[in-house]
């Protein structure tokens, strides 16, 4: 029994490359533009569960291209980490999935997060009748912070994370955890992460940042939690893929868009 995790996107809020550059075709920062794994869309993952009830984590602005690139056509659950635009702005695109599954999709998240998503996409949360789906249809399922909950027939753990002036929600299933958009972990979060083996975690850049973890902070967490495998995500243009591969310590590696991980359930 195992769960397949696909890294749909591992970039920061502006992606890599960012809009701009001297020729107008992108600002790559320190990232080598000839390395395909440096091309990063906005952060999201997809969980393929043994029972077939797959889960999308966040609906960023690149979600349509991410689903097409990875051959994903159906899921019945979305989990929201927080309501920043780079994690919710593509919600309209799930209409195509509604039409395939012929049903609304359940959206899980903290009540305050779902309320903000509803504010921006009120029409998507309106009751839907029939299966025509002229618009996307989503049903909100509120979860309590720092508690276990059931999603898609499985038990998950949600834990709160410091994200600058706000908070995000981390997600754990078995020995796997996902912590995008995090800069602080309190005692509750560290307890929720105890014993993990595979951790996909925010690491935006090398230098300290007010809202996102940086490399030194992630390595400090590594010492505390001692996971077998750390995979860096939400990386900005400071984080060249090959340089990271050459310099990171054992057990730490950069993600890339389309990367897959199989973890025991």
UniProtKB/TrEMBL annotation:
- Known Gene3D superfamilies for this protein? Ribonuclease Z/Hydroxyacylglutathione hydrolase-like
The answer to whether UniProt assigns keyword Hydrolase to this entry is yes
Protein keywords: Hydrolase
The cross-references to InterPro entries, in alphabetical order and at most eight, read: Metallo-B-lactamas, RibonucZ/Hydroxyglut_hydro
Q: Name one GO molecular function term.
A: hydrolase activity
SUPFAM superfamilies, sorted: Metallo-hydrolase/oxidoreductase (SSF56281)
* Keyword Hydrolase listed: yes
Q: Residue limits of the Metallo-beta-lactamase domain?
A: 41-234
Pfam families, alphabetically? Lactamase_B_2 (PF12706)
Q: Which CDD domains match?
A: metallo-hydrolase-like_MBL-fold (cd16279)
PANTHER family, per database record: HYDROLASE C777.06C-RELATED (PTHR42663:SF6), HYDROLASE C777.06C-RELATED-RELATED (PTHR42663)
This chain's protein is named Metal dependent hydrolase PhnP
Q: What species is given as this protein's source?
A: Acetobacter orientalis
Organismal lineage: Bacteria, Pseudomonadati, Pseudomonadota, Alphaproteobacteria, Acetobacterales
């Amino acid at each position: 029994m195992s769960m397949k995790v696909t890294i749909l996107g591992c970039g920061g809020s502006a992606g890599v490359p960012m809009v701009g550059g001297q020729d107008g075709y992108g600002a790559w920062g320190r990232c080598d533009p000839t390395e395909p794994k440096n091309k990063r869309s906005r952060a999201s993952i997809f969980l393929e569960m043994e029972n077939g009830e797959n889960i999308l984590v966040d609906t960023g602005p690149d979600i349509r291209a991410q689903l097409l690139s990875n051959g994903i056509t159906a899921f019945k659950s979305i989990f929201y980490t927080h309501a920043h635009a780079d994690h919710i702005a593509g919600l309209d695109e799930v209409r195509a999935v509604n039409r395939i599954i012929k049903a609304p999709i359940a959206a899980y998240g903290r009540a305050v997060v779902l309320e903000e998503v509803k504010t921006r996409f009120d029409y998507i949360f309106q009751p839907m009748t029939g299966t025509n789906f002229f618009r996307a249809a989503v049903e909100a399922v509120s979860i309590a912070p720092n508690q276990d909950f059931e999603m898609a027939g499985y038990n998950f753990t949600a834990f709160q994370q410091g994200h600058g002036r706000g908070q995000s929600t981390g997600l754990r299933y078995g020995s796997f955890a996902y912590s995008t958009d995090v800069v602080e972990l309190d005692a509750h979060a560290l307890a929720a992460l105890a014993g993990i083996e595979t951790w996909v975690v925010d690491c935006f850049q090398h230098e300290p940042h007010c809202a996102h973890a940086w490399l030194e902070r992630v390595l400090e967490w590594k010492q505390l939690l001692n996971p077998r495998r750390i995979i860096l995500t939400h990386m900005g243009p400071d984080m060249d893929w090959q340089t990271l591969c050459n310099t990171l310590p054992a057990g730490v590696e950069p993600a890339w868009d389309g990367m897959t991980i199989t973890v025991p359930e």
